[in-house]
Structure formats: structure tokens, C-alpha cells
Design a protein that fits this description.
This protein is mainly alpha-helical. It is built from 13 helices and no strands. The protein has two domains: about 45 residues, no CATH class; about 220 residues, no CATH class. The two termini are about 10 Å apart.
Length: about 280
Amino acid sequence: MIAGAADPWEVAAGLEARGVTDVDARRLRHRDVFGLAEELFARVPRTPPRSAPTPATRTFVRPRPRDLALHLLPAAACTLAAALHAPGAVAVAVLAGTAWPALSRGPLRVPGRAATRVPAALCAVALLALARCGPDPVGTGTLAVLALTLLPAAALARWFASSARAQLAPSHGLADFADAVRPRLIAALAGYAATLLVLLAVLGSLRGSAVGALLFAARLLAVHGAPRTAAAGLAVAVAAQALLPTLLPAGPAEAVACGAAALVLAAHSLHLVPRASAHRI
């Protein structure tokens, strides 16, 4: 892990992922894990050698026109489906199919093998299918709004990831890093929720806001190393949304199921995502 690291901060993330804490580092006469990582990075030769990324590439990457087009394609496809009065199942299939290229690259891409990515993706599609095809379904226009938020979601995810990695250098320990990153994560979650609510308000209904918030919180967790937690939260929301209509009207049942799951995943993200190990380069 040390030989293949790009810089000491990647070593610090790897050490934390393996259970090394600031207390362990102090036993080795270092102030914290970051200090230990600096010495290890200096002592271990890189094989093959890799140059550390420049600060500009680590803090901000300008999206290319192709990426912008990929993130806007689902909204355009869903708008066309709404104009053609496509059935609900067709609209969900169009959204899932056109969103996949954007989600498989860029800041919303989940790293790792397909086996770790597929469960959360299937649960997300099931959640959208229940919202669109279940009792008292949301309109295809709501799906188009959710698709339109893919671009701001990617921008917020990119900003959060780059600003968190930039915080690795000035941090004086794992707790210091987590304290600095946590407000950024809250800002990203709140920024997406505000954007979604404004767009839905323009549409004339806030239905689907809980679904969108849940999907964004789950995606951030999956992107930053917790895909199983994200899939579990989505699966619970799907089950609750399928069962609650026997007790509540469909609209409130959706809000309760997805809203509660979104809050739980957001709380988990505040615990898991501020770790240095969630921001390996």
C-alpha cells in the first residue's frame, strides 16, 4: 500500500483503513497518523514511482462538455417521455438506462467491483419504480426533475471530494480531519436538498423530494467506501414503501419511508465519510 501511494496523505488513509489510530502513532513517537505516514512514505521506495498530483488537480477538475452532456441526458430523455405520455415503467427504464453512463464515470462513480455496485443500483431502480408505478404514483415530470438534479449532484459530489482531499494536508490528525470535513459533507447534503426542493416547487409539487434526498445520501456513501450500507438503506426504504401503503396513503407512506431512510443514511455518512480512509486518491 505504501509503495503504490501517490503521497503521504494516501498512506494516512490506508493506515486508518487498517485500524491505525493517532494513539498507535504516538506509541511510535509520532504526533499522529499523518506524521507516521510522512515517515513511512519517505522510507519506502515507490514501485513503480508515481508523482504526486498537483494541488490544482486535487482541488478542482473542470467537467468536460461530454460529461455535462451525459449528466443532462437523463433529464432530456425523461422530459421527452413525459411529452409522449410514456407509461410509468417505460419512464423509469428510460431514466435508469440514460443515467447509467453518467453514474459509471465522474464524481458519482462507485469504485470497486461490479458485485459491490449492483445491489445499490438495483435498489435505486426499485425505489423509483415504486414511486412512479405504485399507488398514487408521481408523474413523469417528477422523474424528469429528479433526473435534472443529477448534474448538481455530480457538481456537489466533486466539490466535496476535492475539498476533503485538500484538507488532508493541513490536518493534524484523524479527528482534526474529520472535524474539518464534516461541515463540508453537511453543506453538500443540504445543497442538494435545497436544489431539489426549488426545482420541485417550480414543478408545483414536493412529491419525490424524500426519494431524491435518499438517493443522493446513498450515492455519497457508496462513492466513499460504504456501498453495502447504501444498498441496505435503499432496500429497507423499498420494503417500507411497499408495506406502508396498507397503513398510510401512498404519498405520506413514500415520505415517511424514504425520509426516515435518508435521515439514517445521512447520519451514517456523517460518521463514515469524514474518515481519511474514505478519501483515497
